């Protein structure tokens, strides 16, 4: 059986572009003094081929299906966005660990700063964009790749693949 992390890695970028992104990400994390878990990071462009504008790097700490929780770090570069989407089942709480993001949730747009928390209920449309590089901690119900429903129907992953 394929795990959700394996599904995520299968839709991740690989090769030179991913290597450059990870090197720049790790340089920024080192400048912040942040230590990531020793896991294979997901370098995501959401299938759009424009990582610099629409993408993120995810470091999965845990995705415990049976225990009912997930934890992961989400890193975005300046101007890079995680696109508008929602989840039918997943409840998330975001904690901004470093940098700043412009967050959109439930039709409201605001800036999150280090230490800010944002709970996001299932069904809530949300996205975020880095104001400079930023690092968020996501605590949530388990991550199920197919429970991501993107507003941009060109994104061929998650629940969009079923449409």
Structural class: mainly beta
| Secondary-structure element pattern, one letter each | HHEEEEEEEEEEE
- How many E strands? 11
Share of residues in strands: 35-45%
Largest sheet: spatial strand order: 1-2-3-10-5-8
CATH architecture: Sandwich
Cα-based radius of gyration, to the nearest Å: 15 Å
What kind of oligomer do you see? single chain
The average pLDDT score comes to: 94
Approximately how much helix is present in the residues?
10-25%
CATH class: Mainly Beta
Per DSSP, the total helix count is: 2
Low-confidence stretches: none
Count of discrete structural domains: 1
CATH superfamily: Jelly Rolls
Largest sheet: 6 strands, antiparallel
Give the CA-based shape: globular
Features:
11 strands, 6-stranded antiparallel beta sheet, mainly beta, 37% strand, Jelly Rolls, 163 residues, single chain, 5-stranded antiparallel beta sheet
């Amino acid at each position: 059986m394929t795990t959700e992390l394996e599904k995520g890695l299968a839709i991740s970028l690989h090769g030179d572009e991913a290597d450059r992104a990870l090197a720049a990400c790790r340089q920024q994390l080192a400048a912040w003094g942040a230590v990531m878990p020793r896991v294979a990071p997901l370098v995501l462009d959401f299938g759009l081929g424009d990582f610099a504008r629409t993408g993120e790097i995810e470091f999965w700490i845990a995705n415990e299906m049976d225990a009912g929780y997930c934890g992961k770090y989400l890193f975005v570069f300046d101007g890079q966005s995680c696109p508008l989407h929602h989840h039918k089942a997943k409840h998330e709480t975001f904690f901004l660990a470093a940098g700043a993001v412009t967050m959109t949730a439930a039709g409201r747009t605001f800036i999150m700063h280090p230490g800010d928390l944002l709970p996001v209920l299932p069904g809530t449309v949300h996205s975020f964009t880095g104001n400079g590089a930023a690092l968020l901690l996501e605590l949530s119900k388990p991550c199920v790749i197919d429970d991501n429903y993107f507003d941009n129907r060109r994104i061929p992953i998650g629940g969009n693949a079923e449409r």
